[in-house]
Structures are given as C-alpha cells and as structure tokens.
Amino acid sequence: MSRTSDPGVPGAATPVDPRQFKSFAEFYPFYLREHSNAMCRRLHFVGTSLSLLFLIGLVVTGHLWYLIAGLACGYGFAWVGHFAFEKNRPASFKRPLYSFIGDWMMWRDILLGRISLH
Q1: Which of 7, 21, 35, 93 is the most exposed place for a label (fewest CB within 10 A)?
Q2: pLDDT of 38 over the 70 cut
Q3: Angle, helices 24-33/96-111, rounded to nearest 10 degrees
C-alpha cells in the first residue's frame, strides 16, 4: 500500500489502497502525490519517452523485441524511481490500468510544463 499524509494527525501517514478510487479522475491526484520526488518523475519521464520510441520501432519494423524493450524501460525506470527515490510501492501493482494511463498523463503534463522535473 502507498502512504499519504493524514490531515488529522500532523506527521502521520495512513495507508491508501489505490483500489478505493472509483474513477481515473479520483485516482490521478493520488497518482501525482505518489510521484512528488523530482528524480522519480524524471525517471518516469525518461522511461515513458524510451517506451514511446520503442513502440514506434515496433510499428515500423514489426520486431517484437521492441515491445519487450519498451515494457522493460517503462516499468524499469518507474520502479527504480519508486523504490530508490520515492520510497513507496508503485500503484501499478494494484491499479495497473489507471497507473498506465496516469503515467502517460503525467508525461503529457511534464511536456506541457504543468508538472516540473525540478
């Protein structure tokens, strides 16, 4: 489970189960809180960008190794960000589809300057 601050107790953290969210609109603010560390966001951005390049390679060539490389980059970079820098468990373990969508939304928001990499 991920943790987030409990507004009722200063400095306390309470477990948040990502499965509690009924819609992606409810989930995305939680997703962004789980990516508050700038290095984690950078690693997600790099991994997602590389995944996009590998997806293009897959479409152009049809070679399945591009799919494997894309998945390895996307998840590998993200998981390093979570375990090494954010110190939390990726929500993709419990909400894989929402997390996948959230990653692309965060990537878009970084490109548009809505989310900082600093």
Answers
A1: 7
A2: yes
A3: 70
